[in-house]
Amino acid sequence: MSERFFLAAPPADGRAALEGDEARHLARVLRAKVGDAIVVFDGRGDAWPARVATIARDRVGLEVGPPLARAAPPLPLTLAVALPKGDRQKWLVEKLTELGCARLVPLVTTRGVAEATPAAVERLARGVIEACKQCGRATLLEIAPPATLAGVLAERDPDTLSLVADPTGEPLGPLLARHAGAVLALVGPEGGFTTEELATATAAGCRRVAVAPHILRVETAAIALAAGVQAASAVHALPRERLS
Question: The domain at 4-64 falls in which architecture?
């Protein structure tokens, strides 16, 4: 695969430009030359083959070809997660991007250990772009503003399957096998949701699900949930004759 770069503005008349960090990475780190082939994507699902046309200090001009075929989208998954500390956040975002998660909401909880400051959210957004470049994804994982449990539950669509990670919950697989629409999954902090938070989620119709036989760390639980939804999405996409 050619090197991939995030394109902030869509192509016009067969031309586009990389600017800022993306341009510097291509020109200075990879030492691109005029005529080199790359792939650019807009973060909204479209990608294009391109060739380097001009190279300046912080701008690389491109000649852009016709759009590439879009990949089939997975089940729309929102993960509301009480973020872990430090570099575990970056690892979490990288893996959720690879697994096709649509949206990550930093969850504000009673026992939370990390605050989703504007600077932290900006770092996570940069991590999303890097992960998309590496894994071939053309749609950015959305990093939503921090929200409380009540706020997340209030804004969801009524047809969304709502789950809360709980080691004592029911198996994830059977629930996903019966559902082909949007999914919201809630993951609490290291100390877990409080009794009151779990009661709020249950009263709002969330199903408690266990994704492993042991207690998982925050990022492991979130990734396991994303992998389960991705696997269910692949099954729902199969032709009926292959499921019989």
Answer: Beta Barrel (2.40)
Q: What residues are paired with 77 via a beta bridge?
A: 183
pTM for the model: 0.87
Token digits for 184?
């919201």
In CATH terms, is domain 77-237 a member of 3.40.1280.10? yes
Q: Following DSSP, what letter does each residue of 59-86 receive, concatenated?
A: EEEEEE-SPPPPPPP---EEEEE---ST
Backbone angles phi, psi at 73, to 5 degrees: -75, 145
pLDDT tens figures, 135-171? 999 999 999 999 999 999 999 998 999 999 998 899 9
Read off the tokens for 131. 């992960």
Residue 124's Cβ-count burial label (10 Å; 0-12, 13-18, 19+) is buried
Half-sphere exposure in the Cβ direction for 77 (13 Å, CA): 29
Q: What 3-state DSSP class applies to 222?
A: helix
Amino acid symbol at 73: P
State both tokens at 172.
């994830």
| Spatial distance between the Cα atoms of 220 and 176, rounded to a whole number of angstroms | 19
